[in-house]
């Protein structure tokens, strides 16, 4: 069963290279469905499915002007995903720092003690 929370939808959408390429194209500015589909060697229904996944994740919105359907990238869900990743990175860095400190303490504790020499 697929997760349906917003963060899971964003990561699921980003898991596919075609969808990431579509977002890269839309980061340059709004485009029609045909413009977005042009560089891909896949069927129109396949592009439509990718766009539905991106829309469901809130990464793309579609507007209609006359007969044209324009796609626009929405960066807010990416900001939320980036914040989650950064939070995880900070927590893991803290854990690695604590592990390094612990290993350093163990290293010093295991070193042999040199008795002081009493020279006459």
The CATH architecture classification is Orthogonal Bundle
Query: What is the CATH topology?
Result: Arc Repressor Mutant, subunit A
Alpha-beta classification = mainly alpha
The number of helical segments is 5
Cα Rg:
26 Å
| Beta strand % | 5-15%
The CATH class label is Mainly Alpha
What fraction, in percent, of the residue positions are helical? Answer: 55-70%
Your description of this structure?
The protein has 120 residues and is mainly α. It has a single domain, classed as Winged helix-like DNA-binding domain superfamily/Winged helix DNA-binding domain (Arc Repressor Mutant, subunit A), CATH 1.10.10. It is 61% helix and 12% strand. The protein is built from 5 helices and 3 strands. It has a 3-stranded antiparallel β-sheet. Helix 1 runs antiparallel to helix 4 and helix 1 packs across helix 5 (76-110). It is rod-shaped, with a radius of gyration of 26 Å. The mean pLDDT is 92. One of its GO terms (molecular function) is DNA-binding transcription factor activity. Residues 1-93 form the HTH arsR-type domain. This is Metalloregulator ArsR/SmtB family transcription factor. It comes from Pseudoclavibacter endophyticus. InterPro entries: ArsR-like_HTH (IPR011991), HTH_ArsR_DNA-bd_dom (IPR001845), WH-like_DNA-bd_sf (IPR036388), WH_DNA-bd_sf (IPR036390).
